[in-house]
Amino acid sequence: MEITLASTGQVDDVTELWIELARGQRSHGSHILPEENRSTARDAVLRHTVADELAVAVVDRTVVGFVMFTVETGEYRQDRTRGLIRNIYVRPDDRNEGIGTALLEAAESELADRDADCVTLEAMADNDAARRFYRRHGYEPHRVAFEKSTESDTL
Questions:
Q1: Strand duo 118-121 + 82-90: pairing
Q2: Predicted model pTM
Q3: Which of 71, 72, 81 is nearest to 117 (CA)?
C-alpha cells in the first residue's frame, strides 16, 4: 500500500469512491444524493487534488481509499488554526488493513505541516464504526449538530 497526494489522473477513481462513500452514508441518515451530486463531487475532488489537499491509498495500482483535507479559513478570527478532514473513505473489501489509519495520519501530517494546531472532522451520529475509529485515534466530540424535520408535530 502506498499513500500519496492525488494526481489529476486519479480524479475519476476518487470520484467513484466518493459516490460509494455517499451511498453508504445514506444508511446513517445522510441527505446527500450520490448520483445527483456526481458532477459536484468530481469538481470538489479536482479542486482538492490541484490544491494538494487530497491523499489516496493505492494497492496494486488501484485507488482503494482517499482523504480530503484543508486548513480552515473564514471570516472569524480564532485562537486555533484548524485543519479540516472533509471526507475519508476506504473500500469495504480493503478495510481493517490499516489503510484508514494511514490516510488519517497522512492528512494529519499534511495539516500540521500547514500550521494547523488541531484537526476537526465529522461523522454521522449513528455511524458507530466511524465514531469508534476516530476515538481510537484520539478524536473526541467537540460540537454536536441537531436536526428536526419541519413536518414534525412539535413545530
A1: parallel
A2: 0.93
A3: 81
What residues form DSSP beta bridges with 84? 70, 120
CA distance 108 to 115: 11
Phi, psi of 99 (to 5 degrees): -70, -45
How far apart (Å, rounded) are the C-alpha atoms in residues 16 and 136? 28
Across 123-138, b (16+ Cβ under 10 Å) vs e yields: beeebeebeebbeeee
Would the CA dihedral through 56, 21, 9, 71 be positive or negative?
negative
CA distance 109 to 88: 15
Q: Give the Cβ contact number of residue 141 at 10 Å.
A: 9
Tens of pLDDT, residue by residue over 41-83, are 999 999 999 999 999 999 999 999 999 999 998 888 999 999 9
Q: Tell me: the pLDDT tens digits for 24-34?
A: 999 999 999 99
Helix %, strand %, coil % for the chain, to 5?
40, 20, 35
Closest CA to 136 of 123, 155, 117, 148: 123
Residues constituting the chain: 155
